[in-house]
Design brief:
Blueprint lengths: L1 H25 L4 E7 L10 H10 L2 E7 L4 H11 L7 E6 L7 H4 L4 H11 L6 E7 L7 H12 L3 E6 L1 H10 L5 E3 L8 H10 L3 E4 L15 H9 L4 E2 L7 H5 L1 H12 L4 H16 L2
Parallel strand pairs: 1-2, 2-3, 3-4, 4-5, 5-6, 6-7, 7-8
């Protein structure tokens, strides 16, 4: 009788474990959103509770939090501290913008460098960005100071830039750690691979990156091969820079899951969420 009871208990445990595994397998792959803006200019499109519910609804388990100005980022951090975002990892970055117009002028404005230092003093940030740079605009004293400050304080840089500006950032300080927003926009995968080979502290972020799939949603051979060769070097992001991106947030995340499912499971998991957790130590 006792043997029968033990056998039954063992069988029930195995069945329970199998059901749990099947349930996890049916869940959509979790996503770490490594390019997110919760802008407060002058107020957010969604209230904080709705944003947190949106992450939960679409199984987004981590975010790089940025905002213009930085009030939105701090609101997300405070919500996490207050226990309002269970299961959500929040990685705050300093946005070097007060208003949208700063996108075009921040690199030559000493007051922006003051803003970066003041925000850093709050003790919550691990990166600076997303910021915009193009061509020779990166060869600027205040940009160099920003890069050197980031290296000194072990901060990441999240840069929306072309290839020339990217090279200049590394020329300012070879120890910079850079998340390349949109991974060059229009560069061919072969060119992206050259950068990845040359710069070990560079990671590609894939929001707004066209050409990854064909018209039917199938991964192109070139991008599939690149992701398979460098599965540790890419992260995903929604880039909610305008309200329409928030309104279509679920579609953006579903689009990622569509082509992630075409990769080997380990590579898909790394790009979807593991890389971001590993890079940012969260």
């Amino acid at each position: 009788m006792m043997r029968w009871a033990r056998a039954t208990a063992t069988m029930l445990a195995l069945c329970s474990g199998l059901l749990a595994s099947l349930s996890r397998a049916q869940e959509p792959i979790e996503i770490f959103d490594a390019h997110l803006h919760y802008n407060w200019e002058p107020k957010p499109y969604y209230e904080l509770d709705k944003v947190l519910e949106l992450f939960k609804q679409h199984r987004v388990t981590g975010i790089i939090a940025t905002s213009r100005p930085n009030d939105g980022t701090r609101a997300l951090v405070e919500a996490s501290k207050a226990g309002k975002a269970p299961g959500l990892t929040i990685v705050p970055f300093i946005r070097p913008y007060r208003v949208r117009a700063d996108i075009m002028s921040w690199m030559g404005d000493p007051k922006i460098f003051d803003l970066i230092q003041e925000e850093y003093a709050r003790g919550i940030y691990i990166g600076i960005g997303e910021f915009h740079l193009s061509g020779k605009a990166a060869a600027n004293e205040w940009v160099k100071r920003t890069v050197d400050f980031a290296v000194e304080k072990a901060l990441f840089l999240h840069c929306h830039c072309d290839a020339e500006a990217l090279e200049t950032l590394f020329a300012h300080n070879a120890r910079a750690r850079i998340i390349w927003a949109h991974t060059g926009f229009s560069l061919e995968p072969a060119r992206v691979e050259i950068f990845l080979k040359q710069r070990r502290e560079l990671w590609g972020e894939l929001s707004y990156r066209g050409g990854i799939t064909d018209g039917s949603g199938k991964l192109t051979t070139a991008w599939r091969d690149l992701f398979t060769r460098y599965p540790d070097r890419f992260v995903l992001g929604s880039d909610t820079w305008i309200n329409e991106r928030w309104a279509s947030y679920g579609e953006i995340i579903a689009g990622y899951r569509g082509w992630l499912a075409q990769l080997p499971p380990d590579a898909a998991a790394k790009i979807a969420h593991r890389n971001a957790r590993s890079i940012f130590g969260r």
